[in-house]
Amino acid sequence: MATKLQVACSRQGPDQYTCSVSSKKIRKSIKRFRRKVGSFLMPYVAPFVLRRLSASWDVHVIDQENFDEVLAAKGCLWTLWHGRMIAGLPHHDGYPFKVLVSPSKDGDLMDTLLPKFGMSVIRGSSSRTGARALRQMLRSLRGGGIVVVTPDGPRGPRHSGSAGVVWLARATGYPILPCGFVAEPAWRVNSWDAFTIPKWRSKLAVVYEKPIYVNRNATDEELKLAHEQFRSALLAAERRGFQYLGVQPDWPEEDLEEHWFPYAGEQAEGGA
Question: Is 108 exposed, middle or buried (0-12, 13-18, 19+ CB in 10 A)?
């Protein structure tokens, strides 16, 4: 699509005209052009860059047996915080993961990127096409799939979450696996989730907490307890990762309670 620039011209004489273009308008046009080029190239460049980058990471896995347990179960809800997706997913290249991704422009990038790592995508979120995404997740789990969910995605606040994960665990009988991914050094985007991209030769701690099982006959009170247990385990996984690397967490403790959504019944979960 062509960019239109407004040119101001004034007549100085019988055959003389002076024209000028605002430098501010030119800068805006250049910025729009860069965004369009970036949006076009990103799906092709990002997988190559991420694969090369992740190949350099020094990965340290903590409690691998917990991951092996859910693999043996032939199905699970594999959970991590939204800001750790780039740190966590490349390490699991080739696993038959099905990742919940929001039907947004940001989700479009993940829709292109994730299949490059052998993963499939379920489009949906708690605010848009949630019921359809929930049905797809149920089918995937009942067929023995591994569904990846970011409980605070796609819009946050950071470390928040709804009740979809524990509801799905009760409906299917499959476990929840809380995972933590901590990298140092890393780039942290100035976004609501402090989106983390490990740097070249970064040290990456991968932490698998114990799987959480929810009884199919669980009462509302039991679901509330499972909900709290699940969120606490996700935070514990990250704390253990930071401790292993000998660095402080990149989130303030005082924000945790403020941004946590208590259990409020059956609803679809967030996505990337």
Answer: middle
